[in-house]
Amino acid sequence: MDSFLNLVETARSKKQDRQIKNASISHARVLVRDLLRSAIENGEDVRIVSGCLEADFYVDLCELAQKVFDSGHTISIILEDIDMARVNNGFFDLVDQNENGRIWEVNVNKLDYFYHFTLVSNCRYRLETNHEAKEAVANFNDTGLGQRLHDRFTNLLKISRRVDANTGVKATINEVAFAQA
What we know:
Blueprint: H1 2-13, E1 20-22, H2 25-42, E2 46-50, H3 55-58, H4 62-70, E3 75-79, H5 82-85, H6 90-97, E4 101-106, E5 117-120, E6 124-130, E7 135-139, H7 143-158, E8 160-163, E9 170-172, H8 173-180
Parallel strand pairs: 2-3, 3-4
Antiparallel strand pairs: 1-7, 2-5, 4-8, 5-6, 6-7, 8-9
Helix pairs in contact: 1-2, 2-4
């Protein structure tokens, strides 16, 4: 594990364009943790696409998420199952209740595929290639795939509904923009 930690730390701190493969939940935590650290260090927004934002995975990331918010940046999350994500999930609650947190729900029946990923800026990411096996690739400076993930996130927003933390009312991105105007 120490060699993996060193590999990730070096890739993050030096902003290396280096593909890092992982296939364990512990490696996934290391990568997402360092992506959040990267967001804090570089003053960037975070985007997450997940099935249900598994509470046991994200529980140790609340402090880093708060630091992202404290730096004035956003964490935007698109979920497949928002009701499952709400259950005893401190990370979900933190994002949901912060003015810089955005949580959206997507109807995956409208999609050809639904990859889980965490994206910082448009070049740092962890992209799951096999969710069940926790297999993924990560990179801390890949603008090619990073931009495609950014575009994918933007396109998912167009068919997602935002959930109001106080009322539970769901609204599309156009309805939210209209209400804020």
